[in-house]
Amino acid sequence: MSSLEISALCKRYGPAVALDGVSLTAGQGELVSLLGPSGCGKTTALRCIAGFIDPDDGDIRANGVSILATPSSKRDFGVVFQNYALFPHLNVAENVGYGLLFRKGSKAERERRVREVLEQVQLVGLEHRLPRELSGGQQQRVALARALVIQPRLLLLDEPLANLDARLRDDVRWLIRDVQQASRTTAFYVTHDQAEAMAISDKIAVMKNGKVAQFASPREIYQRPAERYVASFTGEANFLAAEVERALGGGLFRVRAGGATLDVRGAGPFAGSAVLLARPESLAIVTDGTGQLEGRVVKSVFLGAVQHCEVVLRDGASVRLGTPPDRPLPADGTVSVRLDVDRTWLMPDAVP
Ligand SMILES: Nc1ncnc2c1ncn2[C@@H]1O[C@H](COP(=O)(O)OP(=O)(O)O)[C@@H](O)[C@H]1O
Ligand SMILES: [Mg+2]
């Protein structure tokens, strides 16, 4: 178990910049996700940590000591890949025990450890199966067990659920989190799936073109995104163009947005124009006179538990929100919309 600190990591491939000054830290026992679209540098960062490639610049420290000069095989890290990478001719127990063959310990001790970790990932009874005799979810659990069996200082996972179907993905995701927490193993988890990152992480690094756009807890990332890119990558988001009139103090700002004057939250300072984030759940169609915004429903879709509506506001901005499925909408579509200002977030409109 280690803390891991990455500072100003850079990696270029010819003219392409894969990592452009990435800095983040994982405390002991924390799970940190690297979240971002394909090509933003997630795998490159993970491969630098694993020691499969060398960064051009920057440092990686485990418990305060640089590991850049330590070869991959000596770093004591467990790695789980998207494609499992199991040995096809070895059975489950042999795959899992493989990493122990080159370590100290008797055969009996190795067998005890393999059994222990197979229990953790719920594969007892399948010891003698070959990888091809297992489902995708089972194969990925073998890969997880194989990474954990050496009691790694760090667990590295690169899109481990990408090849599983939706139903299995949830199960394996919870298992990974349970096992990681029970063993208090520090972990880095690469994914392009925001829901996965939110559910599993202590902290998320949202990546953009080889840089970290924001590094914070899932709650902070969702509720107080540093910029529009982060907000749109971490869930459904409505953005309203806002003119900032003045700061009111205490993190409140008076803005013109959506054809109304609103007092909203933000980190500031702001000058002139900004972007107001209103997640769908912070908006509601109301009939009790408490709405600050006026608009017209231009589309509604019944989804069972909820009805999704698209509403065009007075200034022409369009927002998406949910309404109870059994609530009739007015025939002419004209509605009053309440914005829960405690759940809004004002952001700069241009970020370098
Ligand atoms: N071995 C390589 N040679 C050349 N370019 C690479 C190599 N590996 C990655 N890249 C480039 O670096 C960028 C980041 O890639 P990667 O880290 O794989 O992104 P992600 O895992 O977020 O999809 C991409 O533009 C990719 O094309
Ligand atoms: Mg990748």
TrEMBL record:
GO terms for cellular component: ATP-binding cassette (ABC) transporter complex. One of its GO terms (molecular function) is ATP hydrolysis activity. PROSITE patterns: ABC_TRANSPORTER_1, ABC_TRANSPORTER_2. Residues 4-234 form the ABC transporter domain. The keyword Nucleotide-binding applies. The keyword ATP-binding applies. This is ABC transporter ATP-binding protein. It comes from Reyranella soli. One of its GO terms (biological process) is quaternary ammonium group transport. Belongs to the ABC transporter superfamily. Keywords: ATP-binding, Nucleotide-binding, Transport. Pfam families: ABC_tran (PF00005), TOBE_2 (PF08402).
